Design the sequence.
């Protein structure tokens, strides 16, 4: 996934093999909780959703709306916001900053199957309520937001949650419910404080199916030359896919062994009867 509201960048990303273009409309409360951090705050709009939808052909359009909220003098309700992005062409809607199962129920009712839904698990409260949340019918995908979750736990570096087992515990719960999931963000191969290849291998180890290409993958606010941006996407995504192919081979090895173990155990059980 790649976050942008620029149609030319979206088309470059799509052509390079990015699966989802991410339009980020979340702003309510975001500046306050991420104050002073070097994080992306996009302030995209419904019109951006409409323009990106018209610009891309094969990539899905994922839209992050605001946390569940009622209407005020400054903004419409969650239900009205969801209606507007569905009308604008969103394929998938992401709900951020969840704190309770009731918020999830309200969100799923509002989407009502008209688009895919993705829950962003990024608060300690959501982690605490995760079993109740996972019992709710109709969840399509889950995503662990490491930036806000690490803030919530008072951590200094978001990937601490990957190293201390927090992400793994959540992924296991998601896997048992058979709901697709992803987490965090990845940089280019060989780049990032935690190199992109290390993070990608963890995605495969943990059964993740998606991730956001981080700002460090291609910062289009700093690089203005469209040719350089295009080559960055083409080469960067190609390198990631090459590593993914390698990782898939290892993942398949363990899946096949898991199936073999299950078959043998089942046979032994049948003979024993």
Sequence:
């Amino acid at each position: 996934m790649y976050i942008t509201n620029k149609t030319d960048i979206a088309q470059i990303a799509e052509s390079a093999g990015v699966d989802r273009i991410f339009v980020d409309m979340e702003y309510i409360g975001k500046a306050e909780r991420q104050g002073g951090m070097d994080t992306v705050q996009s302030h995209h709009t419904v019109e951006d959703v409409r323009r990106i939808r018209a610009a891309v052909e094969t990539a899905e359009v994922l839209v992050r709306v605001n946390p569940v909220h009622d209407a005020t003098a400054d903004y419409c309700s969650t239900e009205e916001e969801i209606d507007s992005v569905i009308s604008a062409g969103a394929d998938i809607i992401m709900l951020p900053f969840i704190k309770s199962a009731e918020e999830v129920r309200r969100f799923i009712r509002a989407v009502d199957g008209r688009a895919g839904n993705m829950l962003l698990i990024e608060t300690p409260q959501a982690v605490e309520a995760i079993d109740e949340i996972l019992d709710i019918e109709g969840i399509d995908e889950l995503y662990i937001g490491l930036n806000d979750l690490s803030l919530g736990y008072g951590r200094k570096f978001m990937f601490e949650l990957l190293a201390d087992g927090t992400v793994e515990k959540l992924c296991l719960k998601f896997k048992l419910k058979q709901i697709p999931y992803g987490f965090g963000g990845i940089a280019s191969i060989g780049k990032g404080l935690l190199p992109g290849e290390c993070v990608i291998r963890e995605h495969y180890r943990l059964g993740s199916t998606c991730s956001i290409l981080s700002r460090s993958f291609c910062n289009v606010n700093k690089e203005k030359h469209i040719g350089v941006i295009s080559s960055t996407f083409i080469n960067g995504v190609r390198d990631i896919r090459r590593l993914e192919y390698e990782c898939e081979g290892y993942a398949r090895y363990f899946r096949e062994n898991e199936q073999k173990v299950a078959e043998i155990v089942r046979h032994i059980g049948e003979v024993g009867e």
Q: What stands out?
A: Residues 226-272 form the longest helix (47 residues).
